[in-house]
Amino acid sequence: MTTLLAFTVLVALVGLERIAELVVSTRNAAWSRERGGVETGLGHFPFMVVLHIGLLVGALVEAWVRRPDVPSLLAWSMLALVLASQALRWWCIATLGRRWNTRVIVVPGLAPVRSGPYRFLSHPNYVAVVVEGVALPLVHAAWITAVVFTVLNAGLLAVRIRAEDAALATLPRTTLPPTTETAGA
Membrane-spanning residues where (predicted)? Predict the structure, then answer.
């Protein structure tokens, strides 16, 4: 199998992974809304969708049109980063459980999650997005796509993180177990 064909398969697999995320996200967003979840940050969401599709399409188009020579060290090291970013992304999804989705929806009364990767970073999923945005195109030396995505994603993340932080600021800092005083007994 040629390296270009292998890269195409990799990008297709990442695309399938995105579809799996959307299935999980749709289910979880419904769960949040059923519990009074409030969505914010609607304005940037369509741009985010287009940007992430653009990453996959751009990487493939650039690889097939430019057909760059790809040093093995670059390809393998970037593939390792792509796999690490996927692992981090799914660790975030598993940690947030039903509360994870691709939108900014918070359920009133639920404290922010502070376990898993959220013990270390406020927004670990965006670390995965940034790493993948650079690494995936560079698996096949598609540096133009990597640069364009990174620049546009930086602007998007500035808006997205502000929206998430504002939404999370409305939640309680901790959730206390019910006591006789708080349970009304």
Answer: 44-61, 73-91, 126-152
